[in-house]
Design a protein that fits this description.
Layout lengths: L4 E10 L5 E6 L2 E6 L11 E5 L2 E6 L1 H15 L7
Antiparallel strand pairs: 1-2, 1-4, 2-3, 4-5
Amino acid sequence: MCLALPVKVIEVGCGPDGEHAMVDLGGVKKEISLALLDDVQVGDYVILHVGYALSKLDPEEAERTLALFSEMSAPAPAAA
């Protein structure tokens, strides 16, 4: 099974080759490769899979997906 996550780009041009970006992954900062994409800017959302940005994602779509992930990880309400 493969899992790709939407992440927000917070810095571009990282790494020795300048083909990396720093992203925010639920509060965790991670350096990823931009080798497969062109024209990624700070504030863009990308789909991240095994350390590579695969494609850009519409910001509204990314935020909906991240909200769903957040709901899934929230503790269930206590039974009355």
